[in-house]
Here is the input.
Amino acid sequence: MFFLSVKDVIFLGSKGVGHHCLNHLLINQTKLGIRVTAVLTNDRKIKPDDLSILDLCDEYDIPVLAEMNDLLTFDRPDFLISVQYHQILKEEHIGRAKELAMNLHMAPLPEYRGCNQFSFAIIDGVAEFGTTLHVMGTGIDSGDILFERRFPIEPDCMVADLYEKTLIESKQLFENDIVKIFSGDYKKITQDSLVATRGTSIHYRKEIDEIKQFERTWSEEKILRYFRATYFPPFPPPYFYDKGEKIEVTPNWIEKNTSSPNFPDFSNIVKPEPTFRYMAAVFVSIGLFLLVSSFSTMDVDGLMLAIMLFGLGIIFELIYLNKSKEYKTKIGESTKRDPFTSLLGFIVGVIVTFAVLFFLTPFGYILGYML
Here is the structure.
């Protein structure tokens, strides 16, 4: 596609999907006929593997605006593009765009405006979800629809699964249709014209705390439905109070306290085998024995072998800890260190200190030469 002039774009966004969309714009600037002139972000991440928008700006030498009001003094762009930006823009900010200010909303419109849309879709028991590119207005996700993608919600879907599906669809929507927005090849559809057939709702960020508090008197179906809607590690799990005690509703609790055939599928959550921990214990034990016997006879080769065995023990323990942490996170259990890990950490500290003193000091060199 040939563009007569280059359009200036200011990007506002966060999270992994924000990074993905900004990266798509940056690597395709020539093809899209645009120039990203500035970015506004709080660089928030949902998942540990989400990439940093700030790092991407550094890589491409893109100016980062400190606050939203900087839009009022920065050169006016042709387009403002928002992807999971955390603040609502006022009319004076939106008006800075010469052609269009648009937002990627990871939910179908006008059905689910605002926040926590994945959770409420599951609570409502709807069969379809979606993601939307729409014009930014002064209301919350209230602007005209530009493009959208829709897809079915699987039965007994967990909120994390719905989020991942919507994430994939949102990236596809952005990549497919952003070029049409830049070229003006779109038709606006007002949300008001769809309310009669689709319905509408708006939800706020604070509501997630309300729907996470269960009542033990709820029916089993309602408990399971709200559990599927709110259990989303690494965020805190839902809960209820029993005689003043806070009980967290985790997969373990659900398995022990429900009998519904619609029980969510946790078959993919596999408890780690203790084999790696057993191997760690064996190597550490042999290493300790060899360390003591070798030190008493000043056997340098034995000392080196002992340190190697400790290293193998540490590797096996780290493998076990990584698998165990992943498992505990999925079922909502504490990932606090257990006594064996603490003991191993102490032993490692002692061994490292010994190795430094013995091999990296003049005393160590002299002793090694004498032996």
